[in-house]
Structures are given as C-alpha cells and as structure tokens.
Amino acid sequence: MSNFIVDNNGIKRYLVTINVNGIEYTKVVKANTLLVNFLREELDLTGTKKGCELGDCGSCTVLLDGKPVNSCLILAIEADGMKVTTIEGVASTSNLDNIQEKFLEYGAIQCGYCSAGMILSAKALLTENPKPTEEEVRAGISGNLCRCTGYINIIKAIMAASGQEVLN
Amino acid sequence: MEGIRYPKENTLYKKKEYTQIGQSKPRIDGVSKATGAGKYCGDLKFPNMLYGKMLTSPHAHAKILSIDTSEAEKIPGVIKVITHKDVPDLKYGISPARWDENVLCIDKVRFVGDKVAAVACVDEETCYKALKAIKVEYEVLPAVLDYRTAMNEDMPQIHEEYPRNINTEIHQLFGDVDKALEEAYHVRTDVFEGQRTYQCPIEPHSAISIWKDNKLTVYSSTQSVHYFQYYIAREFGLKMGDVRVIRPLVGGGFGGKLEPTGLEFNGAVLSRLTGRPVKMFYDRAEMFAHNRGRHQGHYEITTGVSKEGKILAAKANFVLDGGAYTSLGIATAYYAGGLLPLTYDFENYQFDLVRMYTNLPACGAQRGHGAPQPKYAFESHLDNVAEDLGIDPIEIRKRNARQANTNTCNGMGIQSCYLSEALDKIEEITDWKAKKEKGLPKGRGIGMATGSFVTGAGYPIYRNDYPSSSCMVRVNEDGTSATLYANAIDIGQGSDTVLCQMTAEAMGYRYENMKIVTGDTETAPLDFGAYSSRQTAYCGWACKRAGEEIKAKILETAGFMMHLPPEDLECEEGIIFSKSRPKVEPITFEEAAKKYFIIKGPLVGTGVYTVPRLGGYHKGAPVATSPSYSFCTQAAEVQVDEETGEIEVLHAWDVHDAGQIINPALMKGQVHGAFGMGFSETVMEEVVFNKDGKIINPDVGGYRIITALDMPNFTNDLIPSNDEPATPWGLKEIGEGSNNPTMGAVRNAIYDATGVNIATLPLSYEKVWRAIKEKKEKEQAAK
Fold first, then answer.
1. With an 8 Å Cβ cutoff, are A107 and B705 in contact?
2. CATH number of the CATH domain containing A149
3. Is the pLDDT score of B12 beyond 60?
4. Same domain for A19 and A77?
5. What's residue B242's pLDDT?
6. How would you list the strands of the sheet with B482-486, edge to edge?
7. Domain of A78?
C-alpha cells in the first residue's frame, strides 16, 4: 500500500504515482477515489466518460497495463505504479490511430459518448488478436454499450482496422 | 467511399449533379469525438464551481408534512440547501392546459423520484452526505400503479384538477366506421400491450447554471436550446434575452433530453443563491427515475376488410400510462393514433384514447414518439388478418399501400410516396417468395412491416408564431471559410454535418471549408431543436436560403470582377465561372468573397423557414401533420430456440423512401441505430417496478439493451427519389420512421417461426419459451 497522510478531519490520503499516457503523475487521493474520477477530475482527461458508474456500460474503458478495464470499478490506489492509456493517449500528436481513422471512415461515431471506450476495447482486442473474426470483434466490444449506431459500423470499422476487407 | 447507386431504370429520379450533398462527407465533429477532445456538459468545469444533487421522493404517492434541512446545512462543505420555499411555484409542462409539474414538490410527491429538495456542495461526495441528512416527514398515500385501473371510481386522485386520473382524452371519428364494419367481409379485433421503455442515452443528463449580474447562463445536455431558454425565462420571470442556453456535445437524446428537468431549474436557483456556478447531474438510476421514456399502452385494434384484404375501416382504442406528469405526453397521445392512417389508405377511422395519470415516472417522447407501439399493434394485427384471409403479408400491404398525392382520412397530405416500390423491393431482396413457398427450417421465420414518419412536426413544440427554423452564414473576411450559425441541435444524428453540406451546396462552396456554431441562444438564431425528425428539412431550408443569398451576393461581386453579368456566372465547389464563355478565366470564391468584404463589409446570408398551415380542423388535427413523410419497409429473419426461447435475428433488411439522401453514411447509421433500438425494445427492454412503484432495474445491467453480440447483419436499400416538393432538394426524414416498423417486423418473424402470438411486449425469451411450451401441451392434449 502506498504512503498516506491523515488530514485534519482524520481522513487518510494516499500518495499515488500513475503513468497516464506516458506521463508520470504523483497525486494525493482518498482511498475511495475511483480511477475514472482521478483521470477526469485530477488530470482533466475528460475523454474517459462516465455512463453508469456501475461497470455496465463500458464508457469509462481505459487500458490498465494494456488490459481494458472499466475505470469506474478501479480505485486510483489500485492503479498506483501502473500504466494507464486513455483515449487522449491513443493518437500520437499529429496522427490519429488507425482505429480512430477507421471509426471516422466507417461512420462508427454518432453521439460519440461510447467512442472512447469502444476505441480502447478495440485497441486491446487488436493488440491481442490482430486478425479477429467478426464474432470475435462483436465479443470484444460486447462490454461497451452504444445506443446510437446499432454497432454495425463499429464492427466494420474494427474489422477494417485489422486490415480485413469490409464492404462499407 | 461508396455513394448511393441509382438504378438506371428508375425514371422517377432525375439525376442532378450535386457536389456537396449526396456524399458521405466525414462528420464535422468526428475527430473531436474520436480523440476524446470534445466536451460534453459533464466534462465542463468552471472556477469556484459547486456540485448539486436533488433529494427525491422514496414514496410513489405521499403528502409532504415537513422538511428539515438544518442537519444537512451543518455539514462542512454544504453551501446551500433549498426546498419548494426557495423556488418559484409556477408550474411547467408542454402546454398551458397541462402545466402540472413544479420545480420542487410543494405539498405532495407523485412518484418515486419526484423532486423534493436540492443541495449545492463543494464536491459530489458531500452532496450525498447532505441528501442523507435532510429529514422529510411524509404521510404515505395509496398509490395508483396500474394505468388500466387508474380510472376506477375507488382509485386515489393524483392531481386535483384531473378527476379519475384522466390526463388526456381523445375521440376522433372520420367517415362512417360502423357502416363500413357492417359491410366488411371479415372483421377482426386484436389486443396488444406495450411496456415502459426508456431512451437510455449513454450520456447522463447534466446542467451547469451560472446566474451572475442578472443574467442566467445554462450549459445543458439538451435537444433544444430555445425550448429550454423559453421555459427557464418563464419560470424565473426573466427576459428571454437574459437567459443564455448553451449545448455542449450531447451524448444521445432520443427524446429524453427535449424538456427541461429539475437540473436546470434547481441549478439556476442554487447558483443565484450562492453566487457560484453549479453543476447538477443525474446518475443512471436518477435518469431512469426522471424517465420521460416511451409510454406503455393497451392497444385494441379492429379492422374490417374486404375478401381481397382491402381495409375498409379501422378502429383504434388505446389506453396509455402517462405517469405522474404530462411531460410531452399530450403530443404522444395524439401521435399514437394520428400516424396510423399514413401507410395504409382507408377512409373510415375511429381513434379513441385516454392517457392516464399514475404514480410512476412521467412518460414523454421516445424515438418515433407515440407511434412505435401502436404501429407494432397494427402491423401484428394486419398479419393476423392476412392469415385469416389466406393472403401473403406483403400482398395485403400492397393492396392497401399509401400512394403519392393522396390525403389520409384524418387530414394529412402526402405528396411524394414510394411505399409500393419499397414493398416490391423488400419482397425481392429478402427472397420472400421463395422462403414462403419452400418454407424455412424449423424454428426459423421471416416477418416484415411498413413504416412512416413526419419529416418535422407541422406545429411548434409550444404555441408561438415564430418561424420554424432560421440560420445565418458568415463568410470569413478572406473567403477561406464560412461559419454556419444555427440552433438545430446535433445529438449524435449528424445534423451539424448535413446542415454544413447543404449550406455549402447552396453557396457553391466546399463542405471542407465550413465551420459551425450551434446550440447557443446568444450567437445563433432561433430553431426549435431536435425532435420530430425536423432539422434536416426545416433548418435545411434555412441553410439553403442563406447559402443562396451568399451565392447571389458573391456572383454580383464576381460579375464586376469578371466584367460579366451575374446571371451568366455560376459557382460550384468554390470556383466561379462563366456559363456561356468557357474560355473566360474562372476566379475563386475566396477572391470574390475578399473583394466583397473590402467593398461592402461582412458577407452574411440569412435563411428562415416557416411550415405552411397543415391539416384538418378537428380537435388534435395539428399533431401528425408534416410537410412531408418518409416511408419504409423492414424485414427480419429470426431463429427461435424452442428449448430456451432464445431469439436470434439472423438478418434484417430496410428499404427506405427517404427522398434525396444528403449523407449516405449518416443515413445508414440512423437506420442501423433505429432498428437496433426497436429490436431491443421488442425482445428485451422493460422498466420494471416493485409493488411500491419503485424501479427494480434502474441500471443498464438490469435494463437490458442490445450489445454488439445481439445486433444482426443488416442490408440497407433505397427507393431513390427527389420529387418531394415540400423539402429542400426533396429530402425526407430518416431517424424516427426507421424504428416505426421494427417491432412489428420482429414480432411477425417470431410468429412465423413459432406460431405463437404473445400479446405483451417485450417478447422476451421467457415468454416465447412459455408460449411454445403451452402450445405444445395443447397440441398434445388434442391428440
């Protein structure tokens, strides 16, 4: 467990160091600070969305040491010393990631609220399984809910991002 | 990217050379959404900002005896606690006759989740502590939880002004229904029941209110900045000009973000009292409690048909569960029956409806508004009628299909209509005839239905005499970009993109050079916002007119520059050229625009559109009127597992008569999403309450919406046309009509697969399994 101090109200506050998108951040957090709130409130990385705060919708998906997780179900102190990738860290400064490009090209984005989580789930899937079948793509994003697109263009975009021929 | 392929043999479609519309241009907000840079309301922060939450009622129906906020006020970090004493007592709602909701409840709460008090604190965590510390004494009253018995004499009355809990009552009669039914060859009545569903956008509602120096600014996840501005100003007695409503990105609405909530009203009061910005937001459970989702209803449908299946008369007798308040429900009620005569042509029609108050969350406008459940009932019923007569389901629809340039019996005028063609096409692309003749494997079935929807409501959301839509375009001083200012609201459907395409088309400019400022009452002119699938047509007219004004101005300037009369000039894709003298050197839009600015000042165009008067003169005639209607057919092929009741849609098809397509990729996305939502509503979704009126599944784990594993593969098809005179470029709506047929199509496929008729939505795996089991047992017993 990380170092802590006790504030004037008797509440323990912990010192954590989390690498987010390649940058080390050292911050003081409460034991109940969620990773999603750490990212959004402490670091102003609001690309990670909150949709349900129960781990149901997948909007807050980030990569924790490369694995997709719901950041609303992870405490900031659990991520101490780990590497987090958020949507802000997917693209390099000048270029979009291939998955982002394909999401744009295939009309996979409508309201955009699920997009960050979808793209990160897709990123994790394609890292693990560079040539997934359509069923594997569907399973890979089944933890990310989308209310706008009916998923069809998202599935096509991910298939295309894996270099597989898709009819647009 | 692939465009739409217009078949050569279709002589109805006169191909025109468009450069900006009819193409899958990338979304104007795409990159900001793909990179996480785009800001939604909940992502915004202001210096010194407070966080606010509302305390809501734990009881479905109770008197408020007392509210004690003293303990809450003592908690460190609690800045302000308010009750009904601190807020205006002016009631609000959709129409003056139905203003029935208070900012905070005064003497009574009417559903679990009704607004009782609000707090503003330094952080979210402190808000929850404060809410727990507020003591409210209630006298619990008996509650009305079943809309079907809400009218009974012995039921408690929810609103003083509405005896027997009747919120809205409709009785419409067109033609001579009784006579037609008497003369009919076959008369059949079916009863169906819908369920409560919820829009469930992935972005929760939030609002940030900043009341400073007599001016109130509200950032909100809203579908209509104007409607919010109007009601917020009215509630607080402010001039509309002193209320600024801004829409950041909106993460889906589907009707649920069309009306102001307690978040805007209470946030405004908290900001005024604290002098600080206040951010208020719903969590997922609070969204379900606020609701405003689809009404559940009891739908009795009777039709009388000829031997050939021609519908001679139809009778619709509906009861809707409206919940505790009117919300937008009076429009829902009229839509429920008003849209039924669209797809099929019959002369005699009776529509009776009561919308009941219950002690459940208020229902409002969900995608398709009042139409999808009644349409589901009608399409299911029509398949039953076809079976009685031994007529193929597509054939009976062909025999009744709406034709172009006709009027419905309830006073709606239809100009362009290709429903018959869409029926032929769906028959062809689904291989319908072969499947029907040869039969499908065991457990498999195919079904279809028709759909239609208004391309914009014919009358504004609240009574006023403003135009329907307006916009302005300002060309940058050097001509290298143009900014569209419009208050049409992009909630994900892509209106910002298509409006910029249309503006660029009208200007003779390039979409890629367009910018847009939208969703801000202080910078962009009036538009009523995103509802009734109106924006592409209405704001599209405004954009077309503003763009044409710019083009006329710039061609005049170019005429001087080129020493040619403006009538001889044309501008396409930013290039100005002579129509008669091909050897004259063209000049660019940029050059001419810059010259215009130097000589005359800002190059600005404005556009406005007002819907002409539409519809009949009977009570309720305005609802369901529209300048134009889309038409479509949908089909689904399903596989039902008899052992488990599991329903898998193997493939789905949609054939659309949507007029001129502005952006094919966005159009397809709308259809996919609408089918997905409709399919989800057919087999899974249902807000479930316990015996005390409390929602037991207020989360997306318990309230199941489809995942990527459930969505079938999909075929989009079109009947191309551009002959609709009432809309710019002959376009038609796409977003809501495309979930009009879905529930009926899926139900009809399940019936075809199993032979079981389940009268209550959703057609869950359990219900299907049980019905199949009962059917088998009955068949066994008969042997």
1. no
2. 1.10.150.120
3. no
4. yes
5. 98
6. B514-518, B482-486, B469-475, B603-609
7. 4-89
